[in-house]
Design brief:
Layout lengths: L3 E7 L3 E8 L4 E8 L11 E2 L1 H19 L6 E8 L4 E5 L9 E2 L7 H8 L8 H4 L8 H11 L3 H6 L3 E5 H9 L9 E3 H4 L14 H7 L8 E3 L2 E6 L8 E7 H8 L8 E5 L3 E8 L10 E6 L7 E8 L3 H9 L9 H6 L9 E3 L17 E3 L7 H27 L6 E4 L6 H11 L3 E4 L4 H13 L6 H7 L2 E5 L5 H16 L7
Parallel strand pairs: 1-5, 5-12, 9-10, 13-19, 19-20
Antiparallel strand pairs: 1-2, 2-3, 4-7, 6-8, 11-12, 13-14, 14-16, 15-16, 17-18, 20-21
Helix pairs in contact: 9-14, 10-12, 12-13
């Protein structure tokens, strides 16, 4: 009888392999970083071969450290940095070019050219996304246009495309020796090529972008058996696939419409489950697939992305030297009662949701002689909470679904001051789970469900444990006054770059 479910969590800076027991507790983990390659300003690449090597190393490492016999693992799932694009030769498994990472901006000319006919929202009705360098479709086009001979091979089906999930699953299930070429709906929805209604590649958009269908993976459910692993996990079902933010939603068991999670990392990603019908955003959010379990209807989400949250604390540490380590920001913020009348808008690389203004730049406003470094630290923390409130307001406006509580995960959720202020400014409870590794857990859950290790989503809900909850304590009049001040501060950052 199998005792565990496992997950490969392939992220932007590192790869982890995690093993969980039936109660969703961590039994084993190993993690390794990989190189960040910056060939030119705005270009970001990874070496796909290095990522596959790291994947094999952390699988072996976690098995060894935990003393788990692979035969005791029921299934393995995969979760991944989304939108990062790999194209490789089917016969050899060799990439034709480095992986082009989600942060890479080299496709801005392609996106601007495509927007000349129909604007930034040209494909939004079909795919739920604006034309932006973020997504995979334009990255595929860049490789086909710029790397000699690849387009011809793509048309003959001799080269394959995948986001990192597809690359890992293909290699995990045999690579050139019969590897399975699949992706799931959550990853496919980040390419700009998948139709939200049909859950398949959109022939019209493929034609406009010049992407041959022969190179694309089959679009499958997020929880189903794709094939069997080879190597250290030989014979184990590979049965789960979710983009990282969707995996966190799944791991947080946000299975009902109106449930949302916010992941606090370098930036913030908030996803709201909107049920089995896509909701088109009128307020600067992305319409994306949440997940699909087997033959059940797909579940959709609205997503709000915030560029700078945890990165602002790193900036206080590295650029200003206000603190020695990131965790010190809380103690510094606690030396003052409030923000001293200042607001810190961290639009270092423009504003993401709900504004999408790339010409904005960061600002601290409301400065007086009274303000000290404690106020700056507090205003920096508050910026994360205010930006989250803006995304939440956009979600409420788009979905008509009123949020009842916010489940949180990621590094910043151990900052009590921030979490209390987050509850105060949202006016709803903020809830931290007992297992903070919700991304890996979500992928393991999807895989375990597919093979019956967990029978139903209600079993997963039973696993979800609350570590701590913060309830709003702020007077509503003060909340409104503070939020109004924030909104005013944001307008001061607009159109800074001409």
């Amino acid at each position: 009888m199998a005792k565990y479910a496992a997950a490969v969590d392939q992220g932007t800076t590192s790869t982890r392999f995690m093993i969980f027991d039936h109660a969703g507790k961590v039994v084993g983990v190993d993690q390794k970083e990989h190189e960040q390659i910056y060939p030119k300003p705005g270009w970001v690449e990874h070496n796909p071969m290095e990522i596959w090597e790291r994947t094999q190393e952390v699988i072996a490492g976690a098995l060894k450290k935990s003393n788990v016999d692979p035969k005791d693992i029921a299934a393995v799932g995969v979760t991944n940095q989304r939108e990062t694009t790999v194209i490789w030769e089917k016969a050899t498994g060799k990439p034709v070019y480095n992986a082009i990472v989600w942060q890479d901006t080299r496709t801005d000319t392609i996106c601007n050219d495509l927007a000349k006919d129909g604007g930034q929202d040209r494909f939004r009705p079909q795919v739920g996304l604006p034309l932006a360098t973020y997504f995979s479709g334009p990255k595929i086009k860049w490789v086909l246009d710029n790397i000699a001979g690849v387009r011809e091979k793509a048309e003959r089906g001799e080269v394959l495309f995948g986001n990192i999930d597809t690359w890992v699953i293909w290699n995990l299930t045999g690579g050139p020796k019969g590897g399975v070429h699949v992706t799931d709906v959550s990853n496919a929805s980040r390419t700009m090529l998948m139709n939200l209604e049909t859950l398949d590649w959109d022939p019209e958009i493929l034609k406009i972008m010049g992407v041959p269908r022969a190179m694309l993976p089959a679009v499958r459910a997020s929880s189903e058996v794709y094939g069997n692993a080879t190597g250290a996990l030989a014979g184990i079902s590979v049965a789960g696939d979710l983009g990282d933010q969707q995996a966190a939603l799944f791991g947080q068991t946000c299975f009902s419409a109106g449930e949302a999670k916010n992941t606090y990392g370098t930036g913030c990603f908030m996803l709201l489950n909107t049920g089995t019908k896509p909701v088109q955003s009128k307020n600067g959010l992305l319409t994306t697939l949440g997940y699909k379990i087997g033959n059940e209807p797909a579940v959709y989400c609205l997503e709000g992305s915030i560029a700078i949250t945890g990165a602002l604390v790193q900036w206080l540490r590295d650029n200003l030297g206000l603190i020695q380590k990131s965790a010190d920001v809380e103690a510094l913020a606690q030396t003052v009662e409030d923000n001293g009348g200042i607001f810190f808008v961290p639009a270092f690389s423009g504003l993401f949701a709900p504004y999408w203004k790339s010409s904005a730049r960061g600002a601290i406003v409301g400065m007086t002689r009274y303000v000290n470094k404690g106020h700056i630290a507090r205003a920096a923390l508050e910026a994360t909470a205010f930006q989250t409130r803006e995304v939440l307001d956009a979600m409420n406006a788009d979905s008509g679904v009123k949020l009842t509580g916010l489940k949180v995960d990621g590094g910043m959720v151990y900052n009590e001051t921030l979490m209390q202020f987050q509850a105060d400014i949202l006016g709803v409870p903020v809830i931290r789970p007992t297992v903070a590794e919700t991304t890996s857990l979500g992928a393991a859950y999807a895989a375990g469900l597919a093979v019956g290790f967990w029978k139903a989503v209600k079993d997963l809900r039973a696993n979800w444990g609350k570590d701590k909850e913060w309830d709003p304590k702020m007077d509503p009049a003060l909340r409104d006054k503070e939020y109004k001040g924030w909104k005013k501060a944001v307008t001061r950052t607009f159109d800074w770059v001409e």
